[in-house]
Design a protein that fits this description.
The protein is of the alpha/beta class. 38% of the residues lie in helices and 16% in strands. It has 14 helices and 12 strands. The longest helix is centred in the last third of the chain and has 19 residues. It is globular. The N and C termini lie far apart (55 Å).
């Protein structure tokens, strides 16, 4: 899909005439109970895209977003919506793994995903084995019980870019299913299914919504994975607020434009930080010294607004003083909205060394980057004067 075609898909996707009528946007349809004219019509109803059945299975508000997200991934046959990005990660794992199976997960994996693996999956008799995200020969790790290879590129906190096409080729040779958390790039910057991924996951809370006011996750895939994951989703009782689905549909229309601004501003700030004496390594996939930069350069169509950097000669107290001194960066979880955010972060590893420590994670929003750099400079000065 070309960039021009993709931009058109973002605008047109999911806006079926039968769902929106004369309106530009598909309206918010709030419903738990849906009424039928007869027992025969009730019995004939089936849950699914475009078919009213029960509120749990969604309305046109949900179908519009799901169809638009599916259209962004050539080769996909459907998208399943979730009330959070974490639910969109954990449900496919539950659907595709059984007691006695093994999951391979990158050592850089998102913290809540690691917790789920170490608690829920472990209680179910599913083993998780962690691997260096920059491993060259993942096939050497495959065992008789390996069923799923989880990917996250760039990695959470430390931003390693994995060689996704190579990892997927190795997995396919062994019949191992690949899942990718593609939240950082979205389908705009990295086309997961085209790279060989079986199941691609988004936290729509981030760039899809784009305004820090909606919670949503999405899984996009093809058969036979779609039906299996969809059935478990309904069995677990997951339902998405129609208001959140509508907000994410609205955000989707401008996502490509926002991503371009996030990219431009984040690169300016990252390059500026790279020249600061207080900063060690800057972990931004578009910078040459970021681990896996060569994979980003080959596979991605751009970068987004999230990255991290290392504070040198500073302990936890001075790092906290730096973060507290910032005025334009909010201190809070999540990212991907119009606002800039900051968090002190410490990567957790079990089988590999993080590329840097004493990290500060930034999400660069839509403010003027000159103002953000001035804010960072003032915070460096204030933290430097702290005892």
């Amino acid at each position: 899909m070309t960039e021009g075609k993709q931009s058109t898909t973002l605008v047109e996707g999911g806006r079926r005439k039968e769902w929106r009528g004369p309106l530009v946007n598909v309206p918010v349809e709030r419903a738990s109970t849906l009424l039928f004219d007869s027992v025969e019509e009730l019995d004939a109803s089936r849950p699914g895209l475009g078919s009213y059945h029960y509120g749990l299975q969604g309305t046109a508000t949900h179908w519009a977003l799901a169809e638009a997200l599916t259209a962004l991934e050539p080769g996909a046959t459907g998208t399943i919506l979730y009330p959070s990005g974490l639910a969109a990660i954990t449900t496919p794992l539950l659907a595709l793994l059984s007691p006695g199976d093994e999951l391979l997960a990158p050592d850089s994996v998102y913290g809540p995903t690691r917790k789920f693996c170490e608690t829920v999956l472990r209680r179910l008799g599913i083993q998780t084995r962690y691997y260096d995200p920059l491993i060259n020969d993942v096939a050497m790790l495959f065992g008789e019980q390996t069923r799923v290879l989880l990917l996250e590129s760039p990695g959470s906190l430390t931003m390693e870019v994995q060689d996704v096409p190579s990892l997927c080729r190795a997995a396919k040779k062994r019949g191992i299913v690949t899942l990718l958390d593609n939240t950082w790039a979205t389908p705009i910057l990295f086309r997961a299914l085209a790279a060989g991924v079986d199941v691609t996951i988004l936290a729509g809370t981030k760039y899809v919504g784009g305004h820090a006011d909606a919670m949503l996750g999405a899984v996009t895939t093809a058969e036979p994975f779609l039906a299996k994951i969809q059935q478990l989703t309904w069995d677990l009782g997951y339902a998405v607020s129609p208001d959140d689905a509508w907000l994410c549909s609205r955000g989707l229309r401008t996502m490509a434009l926002r991503l371009k601004q996030h990219e431009r501003s984040a690169l300016k700030v990252a390059q500026w930080l790279d020249r600061r004496p207080e900063v060690g390594r800057v972990l931004h996939p578009a910078l040459p010294l970021c681990p896996g930069h060569e994979h980003w350069k080959r596979d991605f169509m751009g970068s987004s607004g999230l990255f991290a950097f290392e504070l040198t000669d500073a302990g936890a107290e001075r790092r906290a003083a730096f973060v507290n001194a910032l005025k334009l960066f909010g201190i809070g979880y999540s990212w991907g909205g119009f606002e800039s955010l900051v968090l002190p972060v410490d990567p957790h590893r079990t089988v590999s060394r993080p590329p840097a420590t004493n990290l500060v994670r930034l999400h660069i929003g839509l403010e003027d980057p000159k103002d953000l750099m001035a804010d960072l400079a003032a915070a460096f000065d204030q933290a430097g004067r702290s005892p």
